[in-house]
Amino acid sequence: MTSSPAARFYKEAAASKDEREPGGFTVTLDGRPVKTPGGQPLRLPTLALAEAIAAEWAGQGEKILPATMPEMQLACTAIDRVGPHRAAVVDETSGYGGSDLLCYRTEEPQDLVDLQAAEWQPVLDWLAHDIGAKLSVTAGIVHVAQSDVALAALKDAVGGLDDFELTALTQITQVCGSLSLGLAVERGNLEWQRAVKLSVLDETYQAEKWGDDKEAIDRRRAMTAEVEAAARFLRLVRDIM
């Protein structure tokens, strides 16, 4: 059973300095600091992120709809879930490198074979050059083992992020099914829109050949919204807008 949306209980939402943590920021509702669903203080690394989350709270109507507050949800995930379980999240996210979407190519038709090579290989080449993770590619669905060197490089790259950055990377990686795409967005090598397009390359190809359906369109729309929110969250965390 799904609980009903909570009624709005405040008049004003504002971003402010977090008095409990020098250099940190928070969001207040009628002057009272917001807490996460886990009961933790909403301690944010940048004023830009605090202002964006305050705007989400301010934009609520008579009912509070968490689904319309993606930056708040990501911040709470970073604090309540990623921080306390950081090692497991790093392992899970870096683990996507062992079965990265871009490493599994089709065997036919030839035009799709060529399209995958042209669109996906540059991302893997960048990954090898900039991250030091050279991933092997295979045709078909049989698992291809990646080298220990490549997997270690990917884990180092993921583990080097703070909890908020890691939250953004994890969402992009999970939605796209590709750590290489996630890291390319995180490092600024790829725009998030391009990452989504590459992650649904095969599906788009089939849709252009045989037609699309509402379920697939809705799924891609949801993917786009989630990756966009995570990419924006990352920019806000780094105060890059």
Short description:
The protein is mainly α and 241 residues long.
Describe this structure in words.
With 241 residues, the protein is mainly alpha-helical. Among the domains are: 1-60, ATP12-like (2-Layer Sandwich); 86-96 and 148-237, Orthogonal Bundle (ATP12-like fold), CATH 1.10.3580.10. The chain contains ten helices and seven strands. The chain has a three-stranded antiparallel beta sheet with strand order 2-3-4. α2 crosses α6, α3 packs across α5 (148-159) and α4 crosses α7. The model has no long low-confidence stretch (mean pLDDT 95).
Q: What is the structural class? A: mainly alpha
Mean pLDDT: 95
CATH architecture of one domain: Orthogonal Bundle
Give a short account of the largest sheet: 3 strands, antiparallel
